[in-house]
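Collaboration report, partner site 2.

Our partner group contributed sequences for two proteins of shared interest, and the home lab folded both. The records are reproduced in the order in which they were received, starting with the first partner submission.
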Amino acid sequence: MPTFFRLHSRNPRALAVALALLVVYVVWGTTYFAIGIALESMPPLFMNASRFLCAGAVMLLVALWQGQALPTPAQWRHSALVGALMVFLAMNCTGLAQKLGIGSGLMATVVTTMPMWLALWTRWGGEPVPLTSWIGLALGVVGALLLALEGDFSASVPGALLAFAAPLCWSLGSYASRRLSQPAPAMASAAQWLAGGALGLVAALVLEPASAMAQVSARSWVAWAYLLVLGTLVTLNTYLWLLQNASAALAGSYSFVNPAVALLVGVALGGERLTGWVFAALPLIAAALAFILYGRALAPWWLRARAGLRLGKAC
């Protein structure tokens, strides 16, 4: 038994957290590679729409089985807004960016800018943001700019714009979900996924030829099923469980690990080659997330002492 799990085997809760982290690390780290396979023959808008409509239907049945009430009209509107931002815009920007040539590893790395955007919306919304988070934002901007100099990333300007739009839309949806009234967790997921999937289906029917669905390969269908079952239903619910049973910092640590997993999978299975600026960008983005998620521990002692002095004066 590996040391990590042997140390936790005497504590069932700690072992459950470790296994949940492993699921989130591995599955979400491979999601971008699976998206690339699905897009080999499947239209991107239809891929995301069908995936989230199916996932939303499953979550709706689960919510009803658990006795959760249907959303109110206001909650449906709020869920539709969150679904439009996170499911329709963010996920389709991701798929279209990869369709335009953005590698899975670099796509995963760009997505790590999401917490930086979320911190910005939080501050503009009136909530305090620590100085260490602003340090992280600055490091993240520099890392993102260095990524733009990476050959594989800068080859397609539309792909680059879509890649950066994906975490921007996801962060807006995440912030909206915190500020707007939502139904119970399973019902909220169902409403958001159904709303976003429905928008995607309308766009797919208008923009993508129906004949393209007759040419989808078995390999793409397998990747689609992987994204539906493991990428959405299993891992997203596992992450929600982690938020309730582990610290937010520990649950959010997937942001550090997923890009490394995606880079490894993309190189090992997808034949991707990473050279140049990406190796300078990755440490900066990792440092940015470290400051944002673990700011108190990383803050110099004089910053913590000054904060304590101000608190004493206020009292």
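Second partner submission, folded after the first:
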Amino acid sequence: MQTNKQHDDRITVTDRRSFLAQVVGLAAATALQPKPVVGAADAAAQAPMPTIQLGKHRISRLVAGSNPVLGYSYAGQHADRHMKEYFTPERTMEFLQNCERAGITTHQFADPDLALPYIRPLRERGSKMTFFCLFSQREKIKDAVERAQPVAMVHHGGATDRLFADGKSSQVHDFVKAAHDCGVLAGVSAHNPDCIKRVADEGWEVDFFMTCFYFLTRKMVKKDTEIPMLDFGLPFFRDDPKAMTQVVRQVKQPCFGFKILGSGRHCSNQKTVRAAFKFAFENIKPTDGVIVGMFPWFFDEVGANAQFTRELGKLA
């Protein structure tokens, strides 16, 4: 009897392991499938998406960001890899088509080489989406504009902060001039609110700003400031959004707040997400917008964020 029982237990354990492996495999395959898109009828029934003016372009107040598409989660290597595996060119196109159906008309990308595999076929499918490019290589602006055809080029925030800290802000100004020479709008992105303020105070011919809600480059810029944190940690300080939005309200150009969700740190539930959107729209100008990265693997973040923008970002 003992022998038979041991044999039966081995069969049970083996079968159980096989069953669990099949379930996990099926769950993984299902999880990586794109979520259902917003149907045309559903989109038509929604309230209009609030829009703002960017040069001659009228764009949605909510812009789809590119960090998740590029695999930047700010949550560690495992999350980065999962995002990269999910956002194939085909899924990225489906994601942006979903955004467009939900009323999000603009996408900010950060690397023409990585964006073209989904931007070109997206346009071939009839998308009318507007694009602007976050970049830092002045000598390659013309090539980027010719290939990706964005409406604007924006100097990368991390590079902006570093150049200003090193006394080389003129290189950022040269980028702005080069973008205008190529016939597109020119923007400056920064994590450090002092950079935004200085550009505005000096009267640069910049068309708009990208303004990070968190001063993530603080340790690099303020090298004499001791920040007690783990070496791989990022300084998401609670009061940073207040400091940046105070500057945003002072500059005349349109601003696009980004990392309003703290790179996922305000995403524990939809109540905290809504609160973050509410803070953003209550503390920026009516002529401003927000850029939000989305990862619709688990949940329809596109639909939820679009609804928050309709509800909280509507203009009087």
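Feedback sent to the partner group on the second submission included the following. The chain has 14 helices and ten strands. The CA atoms of residues 112 and 216 lie 24 Å apart.
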